[in-house]
Amino acid sequence: MTFHDLGLSPHLLRAIDELGYTTPTPIQQAAIPAILAKRDVLGGAQTGTGKTAGFALPMLHNLLTNHGRGQRQVRALILTPTRELAAQVGAHVDSYAKHLPLRVLTVYGGVIIKPDIEALKKGIDVLIATPGRLLDLLTQQALTLQKLEVLVLDEADRMLDMGFIRDIRRIMNTLPSERQTLLFSATFNDEIKTLAGELLINPELIEVDPANTTAEKVRQRIIQVDRERKRELLSALIQREQWQQALIFARTRHIADRLARQLAQDGLDTQAIHGEKSQGVRNQALEQFRKGELRVLVATDVAARGLDIDQLEHVVNFELPQSPEDYIHRVGRTGRAGRGGQAVSLVCREEAAQLKALETFIGESLPTEVVEGFAPSGRPTRQTLPGSKPVQNPPKKKKAAAPAGGKPAQNPPKKKKAEGQEVGMLPVRRQPRALLQDDDDE
Ligand code: AMP
Fold first, then answer.
1. How close is the Cα of 26 to the center of ligand 1, in Å?
2. How many other CB atoms are found less than 10 A from the CB of residue 371?
């Protein structure tokens, strides 16, 4: 299948050609026809699957071909949990809409609001926003959503995790009830299912078979090491294995800052981003990282969420996240759009229980390894191979949770891998939340 087969406007096809997209990804093949047909959609997909184009292309096509309820009065709204994701989605939508007579605006907090108000005055067709900034703008009567035709909730699970449910409900109260609603989420717990039940009418359920997702190409490595030697090991890995670039997740702002300082002392070009840094500083570091001018970026979970950085080969969990869902989101930062990647987790003895919980959640045992010169002191917590070997007693496999609408998730946990097959690939998504949320910022 090609994009031409999907019936999209030639102006959109031109933009896609210019971006070098040739074949629609699985989620695009499923979502584009449903959205063109004006169906509500409940999409199970993580970042890295091409979901942004999956919803944005048909949405733009419909805006172009519909006459529209209002002239330049926000006809489509895309809500995202974080500023970084808003900026990234906004940049994608801008590039898709490049040859269309539609105005696109991205708004998020942490920067002055006046330019947003000025831009809205001129008239905007497509608005990408974080919930907080959108509410500020609504309160200041800088826009109305009464003419809205399409609402997209992107990374809805993240929005709920970040406590945006009240904001979302307040925003919903300002929208016309007759509209198309698209909700995307990487995981589905009861809260998401309830929200989906409230917002979507007879939605088309779209799930990506993990065997086809780009995240599937991610190789997962669990490296056992003593806690106090993690920094030294990380520095050695980056240098010995000649990593071009790495995104490191750290649990707190303090750890992120300290680690960035220490890696810089080791001669690695490193910066840290987290909620205490100004938006300007965060954007600048991201931009440098994107351009390949910065080798290592250390980020807290929230600051790094939804990042789309091309050809990112290495994502490192300096500590395992407390929530297995966050693990899946983090791992989704690499192996994007057909490229392979490695997700490396540095796990110390104290994290054994978290590792076990993660394996139970994903329904697969992850092979562990030790790196020469960095073997943990004392008795090993589990068997390892020079390369890597699965644990002896793999955790029981869980049944995947069903998304709202009743249809069970179609992605059973993976079967044990055959001899010689690559181990540690990213397995299923969408399981109930098992543990607490990361205690990070924002
Ligand atoms: P997303 O999951 O929407 O964050 O997209 C992940 C990455 O894949 C982005 O860098 C997109 O530009 C890229 N992408 C999306 N669709 C395609 C496609 N059909 N072919 C190649 N790259 C794509």
1. 11
2. 18
CATH topology of domain 3-207: Rossmann fold (3.40.50)
pLDDT tens figures, 37-49:
999 999 988 777 7
Distance 14 CA to ligand 1 centre (A): 16
| CATH T-level fold of 218-394 | Rossmann fold (3.40.50)
- Residues within 6 Å of ligand 1 by CB: 21, 23-25, 28, 47-53, 308, 310, 336-337
Rounded to whole angstroms, the Cα distance separating 260 from 249 reads 11
Percentage of residues of the chain with pLDDT beyond 70: 78
β-bridge mates for residue 369, sequence order = 223, 385
Top mutation candidate among 17, 25, 208, 339 for ligand 1, by most atoms within 8 Å of CB: 25
Q: What is the pTM of this model?
A: 0.60
State in Å: Cα 193 to ligand 1 middle: 26
Domains 3-207 and 218-394 share a fold: yes
Query: For atom 15 of ligand 1, which residue has the closest CA?
Result: 50
